Amino acid sequence: MRVLVIEDERPIADFLVRGLREEGCSVEHAADGESGLHALQTGTWDVVLLDWWLPVIDGLTVLKRYREAGGATSILFLTARDAVSDRVRGLDGGADDYLCKPFSFDELLARMRSLVRRNERGSGSTLLQYHDVAVDLATHRVERAGKRLDLTAKEQMLLVFFLRHPGMVLSRTRIYEQVWDDRYDGLSNTLEVHVVELRRKLEAHGPRLIHTMRGRGYLFGDSDRPGESS
Asked: For 59-63, 80-84, 152-156, which range has the lowest pLDDT when averaged over its residues?
């Protein structure tokens, strides 16, 4: 499950990020409304946990702007505003669910799973695809140009992360923390080794799709941007 947590209170954010990662979720955190809205608009998420009281842009405004722009990701308001009128405003503003603080973590997980099931019933698709590269998340089958690729578990997780962020420059730190669920120390070459091997398998059936951007990270997709290296 890909989860975005938009929460400015550090203890609550740390609790959510840690707990959700322990449950196997891929989690990112934004600490204010402006960065949260940017992450909402540029990333691919299964569920977003959104606080109401946020610096820069409040949560309700973030929600309304995202919905007005056509955003369809499931959003769960997680807030201390527990008045019925606030719940009505949140749900009418475009939230899919509303949970008041303090909350049970088990109930939060159950509500998140419910939202994901609702989305899956609506879409009916488990296929991630970019041009001729496809990953079926249900069967774990990976193909390029109709040819099946034999990937390790980490290589497949890395490819899935790239497929969910096509055309975006992803830092090594972000990739490592999401795919390996560990802090990147800047010294390990584990990521580079896996990228080289994934490239080799992909490029056996087509042109390069994983590009190294000098000093910035990696980009998945067609690239003619300056600053690209081999």
From this structure: 80-84
The whole-number pLDDT of residue 225 equals: 52
Beta bridge partners of 4: 28, 48
pTM above 0.70, yes or no: no
Which positions ≥6 away from 61 have C-beta within 8 Å? 33
Separation between Cα atoms, residue 65 and residue 46, nearest integer Å: 18
HEC string for 63-129: HHHHHHCCCCCEEEEEECCCCHHHHHHHHHCCCCEEEECCCCHHHHHHHHHHHHHHHHHHHCCCEEE
How far apart, in whole angstroms, are the C-alpha atoms of residue 126 and residue 208? 25
Does residue 109 contact residue 97 with C-beta atoms inside 8 Å?
no
191 contact partners, CB below 8 Å, separation of at least 6: 172, 175, 176, 179, 180, 184
Q: How confident is the model at residue 223 (pLDDT cuts 50, 70, 90)?
A: low
pLDDT for residue 120 is more than 70: no
